[in-house]
Amino acid sequence: MPTDTTAPAAIRVPAHGARRPRPRRPRRPARAAGQILPGLLLTAFGVFFVLPLIWLLLAATKTDAQLVQDNPLSFGSWHALRQNWDALTSFQGDAILLWLRNSALYAFLALVITLVTGIPAGYALAMTEFRGRRALLVTTLVVMLMPATTLVVPLFLEINAVHLVGSLWSVVLPFSFYPFGVFLTYIYFSTALPRDLLAAARIDGCTEFGAFRRIALPLAVPVIALVGFFSFVANWTNYFLPYVMLPESNQYPVQVGLGLLLTDVPQFNPTAGTAAVLRPELALATLLAISPVLIVFLFAQRYLVSGLLAGATKE
């Protein structure tokens, strides 16, 4: 009787522990829509903030007639940019350059005082226990949350009492009072700085100031850069306080100077005199006013990211 000698097909058995590839699931429409919507929102916000900046850059390259008649996002000419620069710098005898120099002096001098006083104050609040510490922290937080304009009148009365109104210090000293920097430094030192490291330094014979200078300060470079950047931006963009404290136009910072320029633009002030400021010149002055903040941000952005993340996790 004939027999079938053909062996059955071998059955493949998956190896022990091996996983079979899962079939690829099609992307759900709801999930795809959930990813598209945030992208559209970010694009809309980007266009909303970037387009005015592009318009401002291009407005400085046009004449006043071109600014009104041409495409808003079209480039004017380098010749028009040079004419706008010459007209702007000739306003009240290079007043725009004087205002920029005043802003740099006020902002950087106040920044140095802020760092010299605010960083040790935050360290002391975080690392030492003393009577009234909690009340001081609460007071710092409350003052930090108050709008800056609410403090202008009390500050003016205090500065006037010591006869400093109209001087350099009438602006620099209030600028140097920066409770947000103290509180930010306090948060960093209380969460990100290991206390055992300071204790080991004290055991080795280091004084409290030596531990602060040799250990705390080198580790706090990111938060120092963050406090410095925020302080510089707040000082540079402050308008109301210098406007109240400084009576002479040659003492103005650039923010107050822009307000003075605005009053000489006929489209905003019909009573402007013959030495009127045109709108492209005002756009160029605005670009000069914001350029230092952009430059400082570009050079300090690496430290700013580190400072924003500092203290996010406790050591």
Question: How is the topology of this model organized?
Answer:
Blueprint (H helix, E strand, L loop, with lengths): L28 H31 L4 H6 L8 H12 L5 H33 L5 H13 L6 H10 L7 H8 L2 H14 L2 H9 L4 H12 L1 H17 L2 H6 L8 H9 L16 H31 L6
Helix pairs in contact: 3-14, 4-7, 4-8, 4-11, 4-13, 5-8, 8-11, 9-10, 11-14, 13-14
Query: Pairing-aware structural class of the strands and helices?
Result: mainly alpha
User: Assembly type of the shown chains?
Assistant: single chain
What's the N-to-C terminus distance? 84 Å
What general form does the structure show? Answer: globular
Biggest β-sheet, characterized?
none
**Which consecutive residue ranges, at least 5 long each, have pLDDT under 50?**
none
- CATH fold-type name of the largest domain: MetI-like fold
The CATH level-2 architecture of the largest domain is identified as Orthogonal Bundle
Distinct helical segment count: 14
Tell me the helix content. Answer: 55-70%
Q: Give the total of domains.
A: 2
Strand content: under 5%
Q: What's the SSE pattern? A: HHHHHHHHHHHHHH
* Strand segment tally: 0
Specify Rg, calculated over alpha carbons: 30 Å
According to CATH, what is the class of the largest domain?
Mainly Alpha
Name of the CATH homologous superfamily of the largest domain? MetI-like
What average pLDDT do the residues reach?
Answer: 82
